[in-house]
């Protein structure tokens, strides 16, 4: 091989080496940076799209914010963060005046901590399972009979945010004098008041003949409604009170 050809071959090899080195040392890092920048751009674009969607959702919810505040105020009046016995009694007296009954007594007991009920186990029906002997008898019977059904126990609804620390129950008993239509109207009025009064017991008594002869007012029967009012003190209301 002549000297000129050897020099030409070495020059070609050197050029290839320089080109390869330039690619791996200069071009490839730039390509990697460009790929990384493109990936970051796509990730940022996806994040921006998610943020825009969340902003649009919040804007849509903000339109109903006044209604939500009104609803919250209604619920707060129904179950306030304090006993408010005097205002509750005023509501009862107002309802009595509006419905034509006369309030005889109002008893407001002491508040007690809420005792959460045990959740109903899934699949529990509340009844005793049928014995295998009775099942076999029913199966072997020649005359078809309707299968006995046991009513399912009502499902107990619980909420972990309602605890003995923030929820209290106050027993209340109200006795009024009046005829049945007026007493019924009184109950409906009480149930429509701002403060929730859950009635779970109703009793009535009629005046004796001697009492009716001696006192015209005693001619009206007496009705006693017993139940509970509630107090819910959440963290936000407690913080507001301290502030």
CATH topology tier name of the largest domain: Alpha-Beta Plaits
Gross morphology? rod-shaped
Average pLDDT confidence is 78
Name the CATH superfamily assignment of the largest domain.
Ribosomal protein S6/Translation elongation factor EF1B
- What is the CATH architecture descriptor of the largest domain? 2-Layer Sandwich
Question: Can you tell me the number of structural domains?
Answer: 2
Largest sheet: 5 strands, antiparallel
Counted beta strands: 5
Element pattern in H and E: HHHEEHEHEHEH
The number of helical runs is 7
Uncertain runs with pLDDT below 50, 5 residues or more? 125-143, 238-243
Report the top-level CATH class of the largest domain. Alpha Beta
Beta percentage is 15-25%
What is the radius of gyration?
Answer: 40 Å
Helix content: 40-55%
Structural class: alpha+beta
CA(first)-CA(last) distance: 98 Å
Record the SSE blueprint.
Elements: H1 3-63, H2 65-78, H3 85-99, E1 102-108, E2 112-113, H4 132-140, E3 167-177, H5 180-192, E4 198-205, H6 209-214, E5 222-232, H7 235-242
Antiparallel strand pairs: 1-3, 2-3, 3-5, 4-5
Helix pairs in contact: 3-5
Could you explain the architecture of this structure?
The protein is an alpha+beta fold and 243 residues long. It has 2 domains: 1-78; 80-115 and 162-207 and 219-242, Alpha-Beta Plaits. Helices cover 52% and strands 16% of the residues. The protein has 7 helices and 5 strands. It has helices at 3-63, 65-78, 85-99, 132-140, 180-192, 209-214, 235-242, and strands at residues 102-108, 112-113, 167-177, 198-205, 222-232. Strands 1, 2, 3, 4 and 5 form a 5-stranded antiparallel sheet that branches. Helix 3 (85-99) packs across helix 5 (180-192). The longest helix has 61 residues, at 3-63. It is rod-shaped, with a radius of gyration of 40 Å. Residues 125-143 and 238-243 have low confidence and may be disordered.
């Amino acid at each position: 091989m002549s000297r000129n050809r050897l020099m030409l071959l070495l020059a070609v090899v050197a050029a290839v080496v320089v080109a390869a080195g330039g690619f791996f040392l200069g071009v490839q890092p730039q390509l990697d940076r460009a790929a990384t920048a493109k990936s970051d751009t796509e990730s940022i674009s996806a994040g921006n799209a998610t943020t825009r969607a969340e902003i649009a959702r919040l804007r849509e919810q903000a339109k109903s914010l006044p209604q939500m505040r009104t609803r919250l105020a209604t619920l707060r009046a129904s179950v306030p963060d304090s006993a408010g016995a005097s205002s509750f009694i005023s509501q009862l007296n107002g309802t009595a005046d509006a419905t034509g009954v006369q309030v005889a007594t109002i008893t407001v007991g002491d508040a007690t901590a809420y005792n959460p009920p045990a959740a109903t186990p899934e699949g529990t029906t509340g009844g005793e399972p049928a014995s295998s002997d009775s099942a076999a008898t029913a199966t072997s019977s020649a005359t078809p009979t309707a299968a006995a059904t046991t009513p399912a126990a009502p499902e107990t609804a619980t909420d972990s945010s309602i605890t003995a620390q923030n929820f209290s129950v106050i027993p209340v008993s109200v006795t009024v004098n009046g005829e049945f239509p007026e007493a019924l109207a009184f109950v409906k009025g009480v149930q429509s008041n701002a403060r929730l009064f859950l009635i779970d017991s109703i009793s009535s008594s009629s005046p004796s003949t001697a009492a009716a002869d001696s006192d015209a007012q005693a001619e009206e029967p007496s009705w006693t409604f017993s139940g509970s009012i509630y107090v819910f003190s959440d963290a936000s209301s407690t913080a507001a009170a301290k502030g």
